[in-house]
């Protein structure tokens, strides 16, 4: 994939960092000794016993960090499966017992030594050498530590014993974390390590760095008994010290402040990071030093207006993300963190919500360095932590995460899981005092001027953005299976972009939460319809919505659908960046010629290409992109334009036809053939034969009765044409010779007015038809029957590679594609994308490969949709919006797709104008050409343009 080298480099750096930390560091820095592995790819083996489920009741071995379910122990639980029936808790009381022996350097005897757990599910009791080191920690997603210096044997072996209870003894912890709409697991799933520090040390820091260059920091100190000095140095990206400040410390908290001139600011578009070194001195001696990265930026919530970063109003293009990988569950896997941030940014998104708990700290570091706005969320899935148990968890989250510039909001729970006692606690530990939001699913729960209500439709959103609060849904366009996500997004995004108080929002959600079931032959389980909610699959397979979102959210906003007659190389462009001028981007144009149907290859050839600098268009302004095309550009089939951002990443690639369908089909409709069409009329069957291909019509119905290819083998297309909406009653059939061709004219009463068949001597069968409708329809056009089980694949010139819906036409471009048959139901195994069955747009020609041979359909008319067979798409409780009759449809309009929310048609229509039914008033005409075989084509390719 595009980012593979960067991913490998990052993972190598991450591993080297942890290897270095595993050795004692001399001097003034914290010394780290890992007791577990650093992540799921680098584990250590501990002794393990589980009380129930698989492999229970005996001592065994387990890799740490991990979930014990993924190691073959215990039982699987999807949280909310057990909410209504207490009897289902039989494995929820699983307890895991861990043992591990380790040695501690004798040199640590005069230091403070802590044992740190970055995450353990759920209640965790820790003993060293048989002694409890502190109270049981309750809460799964938080880093916690114990001072264990008094229990250690320095220079000797020590025994660590940990008891982990999958379910908590605290009911509110279970309500907030465990009885939720996601997979729940057990075990020590994040790293465990020892840290050794001087007795006097810096416990943690809280930074507030503003866009004006002002810098404040609270340093929280421990064991300060005499006068100490705390010094802070700020270094730029080149390692140059740009500011130094110091103060005397005689208490547990000191505040330092300074100012730098013209700081390079942090935004999601410009993720500029500074380095901070903080040291503790006693006299002339440096006692301890720690470091961090941060960014200068100012986050403002201007009530009744919007969200501002560094004085600029921003719109959120966000997605919800679970920490999850199929083989490892939620256990620490740094490679996935980087892959996910890259994919989110590839979709041109700028924000992520950490649903529904704080992630690994590594994920936040990547958001800092690559640039995403983050909502960091305290767990609370529709139920909140009780105050007593929740307050220390909130503190653990904020003191770990507060210095990440990517975090712009704290979320106090999800959908009613808000303990209002916590709202003012975040500011106790966050010196920058970020705004607290409530991610909720009921109107009237706005806080701090921001309404985050979930799953409002387009029309209710129009009302909300006119009310007093900023509207930023923390969940919308639910992406279960193939619904939501990119479907309906274009309308919703335009609404937010243009509304003063529309702040954008967060699609639910990023990836299907499919777990490899070690108890079910390693099948990937999404728990029925519960967890197939992603824009990508469990291993990040891209669904059709992925590229649709990429186009809709493109900061280079181009709405041109087709080239105008007087096209001169200029394309209207709107800059939807917030901080980037388009002259920081480059644009590559390519003149394309498409592979013909007879070519074994797919795709296109590039005749000419060049790059141009982006135009001087300021953020949120409009202008024109001038391509400076060569004089002979019209000789190409199509033109492609790719926008490339300042970091050399593709923003999006648009393709427009230069030639009409008629021109693109030149040569294809010709074939080597005799100059005759044979006609046989007997027993109500009229048969036309040309070039060894025969097509029979039922003279009593006008329908195709039988087809044979050039080898005399049957092609099982039948029962057509059938009008997919409207009525058609057979009236009459007549047939006659027309030049070298032969014509069959069928007339009807009702909405279908006429069908004219014309068999050419080449064997091509032309079908011209017209119908009239007056009203609102889900789809319009004609269908035929063909057995799905005979189909092996399709090749086409048209838009692809993904199928489309009326409200998800974005993200597909014109090319020659090929797709083998699959029966993929989006969001379920085997996650083969693109799906084969569905609606495909702007088809010039399509060749179906079948067990009976090949046949082709081509149209000189633009905007043809081809429907391939029956397929699934979520629409409330219906398996799909009603499909057209038949198996193969040639359509002029297609339906929209909804989501799991709402009911039936109201659910789809609520997505906005693009999701309404098709208003059709008048007559529609179209011509199709069929070839039931494999012709020897006389393709007349254009002479290639010189490079």
TrEMBL record:
Keywords: Calcium, Glycosidase, Hydrolase, Signal. It catalyses: Hydrolysis of terminal non-reducing beta-D-galactose residues in beta-D-galactosides. Residues 300-521 form the Glycoside hydrolase family 2 catalytic domain. It holds the Pfam family Glyco_hydro_2_C. The keyword Protein transport does not apply. It comes from the Bacteria. Residues 45-198 form the Glycosyl hydrolases family 2 sugar binding domain. Residues 1-24 form the signal peptide. Its EC number is 3.2.1.23. The keyword Hydrolase applies. Its cofactor is Ca(2+). GO terms for molecular function: hydrolase activity. InterPro entries: Bact_Beta-galactosidase, Beta-gal/glucu_dom_sf, Gal_mutarotase_sf_dom, Galactose-bd-like_sf, GH, GH-type_carb-bd, Glyco_hydro_2, Glyco_hydro_2_cat. Residues 208-297 form the Glycoside hydrolase family 2 immunoglobulin-like beta-sandwich domain. Belongs to the glycosyl hydrolase 2 family. PANTHER family: BETA-GALACTOSIDASE. Monomer. This is Beta-galactosidase.
């Amino acid at each position: 994939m595009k980012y593979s080298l960067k991913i490998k480099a990052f993972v190598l750096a991450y591993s080297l960092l942890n290897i270095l930390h595993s050795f004692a560091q001399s001097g003034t820095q914290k010394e780290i000794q890992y007791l577990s592995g650093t992540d799921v790819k680098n584990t250590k083996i501990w002794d393990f016993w589980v009380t129930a489920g698989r492999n229970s009741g005996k001592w065994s071995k387990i890799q740490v960090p991990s979930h014990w379910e993924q190691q073959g122990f215990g039982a699987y639980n999807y949280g909310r499966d057990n909410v209504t029936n207490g009897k289902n808790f039989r494995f929820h009381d699983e307890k895991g017992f861990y043992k591990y022996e380790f040695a501690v350097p004798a040199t640590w005897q005069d230091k403070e030594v802590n044992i740190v757990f970055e995450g353990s599910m759920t209640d965790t009791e820790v003993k060293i050498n048989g002694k409890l080191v502190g109270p049981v920690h309750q809460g799964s997603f938080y880093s916690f530590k114990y001072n264990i210096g008094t229990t250690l044997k320095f220079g000797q072996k020590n025994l660590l014993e940990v008891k982990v209870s999958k379910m908590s003894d605290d009911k509110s912890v279970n309500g907030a974390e465990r009885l939720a709409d996601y997979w729940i697991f057990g075990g020590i799933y994040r790293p465990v390590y020892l840290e050794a520090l001087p007795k006097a040390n810096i416990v943690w820091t809280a930074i507030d760095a503003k866009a004006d260059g002002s810098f404040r920091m609270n340093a929280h100190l421990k064991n300060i008994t005499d006068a100490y000095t705390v010094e802070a140095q700020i270094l730029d990206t080149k390692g140059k010290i740009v500011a130094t400040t110091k103060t005397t410390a005689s208490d547990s908290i000191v505040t330092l402040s300074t100012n730098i001139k013209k700081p390079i600011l942090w935004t999601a578009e410009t993720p500029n990071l500074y380095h901070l070194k903080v040291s503790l001195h006693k006299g002339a001696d440096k006692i301890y030093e720690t470091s961090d990265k941060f960014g200068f930026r100012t986050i403002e919530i201007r009530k009744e207006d919007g969200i501002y970063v560094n004085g600029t109003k921003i719109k959120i293009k966000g997605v919800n993300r679970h920490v999850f990988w199929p083989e490892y569950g939620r256990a620490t896997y740094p490679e996935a963190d980087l892959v996910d941030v890259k994919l989110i940014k590839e979709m041109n998104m700028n924000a992520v919500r950490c649903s529904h708990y704080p992630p690994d700290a590594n994920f936040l570091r990547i958001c800092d360095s690559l640039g995403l706005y983050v909502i960091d969320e305290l767990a609370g899935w529709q139920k909140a932590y009780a105050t007593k148990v929740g307050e220390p968890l909130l503190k653990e989250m904020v003191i770990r995460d507060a210095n990440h510039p990517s975090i712009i909001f704290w979320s106090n729970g999800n959908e009613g899981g808000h303990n209002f006692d916590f709202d003012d606690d975040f500011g106790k530990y966050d010196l920058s005092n970020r705004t607290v939001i409530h991610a909720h699913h009921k109107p009237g729960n706005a806080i701090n001027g921001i309404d985050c209500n979930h799953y409002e439709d387009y029309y209710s959103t129009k009302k909300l953005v006119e009310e007093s609060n900023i509207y930023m849904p923390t969940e919308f366009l639910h992406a279960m299976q193939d619904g939501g996500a990119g479907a309906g997004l274009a309308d919703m995004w335009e609404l937010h972009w243009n509304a003063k108080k529309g702040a954008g929002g967060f699609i639910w959600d990023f990836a299907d939460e499919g777990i490899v079931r070690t108890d079910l032959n390693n099948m990937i389980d999404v728990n029925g319809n519960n967890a197939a909610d992603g824009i990508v699959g469990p291993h990040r397979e891209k669904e059709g919505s992925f590229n649709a979102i990429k186009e809709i959210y493109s900061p280079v906003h181009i709405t041109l659908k087709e080239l105008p007659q007087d096209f001169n190389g200029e394309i209207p462009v709107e800059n939807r960046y917030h901080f980037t001028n388009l002259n920081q981007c480059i644009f590559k144009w390519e003149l394309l010629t498409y592979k013909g149907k007879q070519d074994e290859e797919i795709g296109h050839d590039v005749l000419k290409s060049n790059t141009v600098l982006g135009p001087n268009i300021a953020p949120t302004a409009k202008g024109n992109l001038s391509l400076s095309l060569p004089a002979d550009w019209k000789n190409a089939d199509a033109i492609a334009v790719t926008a490339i951002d300042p970091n050399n990443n593709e923003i999006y690639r648009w393709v427009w036809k230069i030639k009409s369908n008629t021109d693109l089909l030149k040569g294809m409709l010709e074939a080597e053939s005799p100059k005759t069409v044979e006609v046989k009329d007997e027993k109500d069957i009229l048969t036309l034969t040309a070039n060894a291909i025969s097509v029979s019509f039922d003279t009593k119905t006008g329908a195709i009765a039988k087809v044979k290819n050039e080898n005399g083998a049957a092609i099982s297309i039948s029962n057509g044409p059938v009008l997919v909406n409207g009525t058609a009653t057979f009236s009459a059939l007549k047939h006659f010779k027309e030049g070298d061709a032969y014509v069959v004219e069928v007339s009807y009463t009702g909405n279908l007015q006429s069908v004219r068949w014309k068999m050419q001597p080449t064997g091509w069968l032309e079908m011209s038809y017209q119908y009239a409708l007056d009203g609102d329809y889900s789809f319009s056009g004609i269908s035929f029957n063909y057995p799905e089980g005979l189909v092996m694949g399709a090749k086409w010139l048209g838009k692809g590679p993904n199928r489309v819906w009326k409200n998800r036409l974005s993200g597909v471009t014109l090319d020659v594609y090929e797709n083998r048959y699959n029966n993929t139901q989006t969001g379920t195994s085997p996650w083969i994308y693109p799906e084969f069955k569905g609606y495909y747009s702007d088809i010039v020609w399509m060749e179906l490969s079948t067990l009976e041979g090949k046949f082709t359909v081509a149209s000189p008319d633009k905007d043809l949709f081809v429907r391939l067979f029956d397929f699934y798409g979520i629409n409330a409780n219906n398996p799909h919006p009603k499909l057209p009759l038949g198996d193969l449809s040639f359509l002029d309009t297609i339906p929209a797709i909804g989501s799991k929310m709402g009911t039936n048609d109201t659910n789809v229509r609520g997505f906005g104008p693009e999701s309404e039914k098709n208003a059709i008033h008048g007559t529609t005409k179209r011509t199709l050409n069929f070839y039931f075989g494999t012709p020897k084509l006389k393709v007349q390719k254009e002479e290639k343009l010189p490079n």
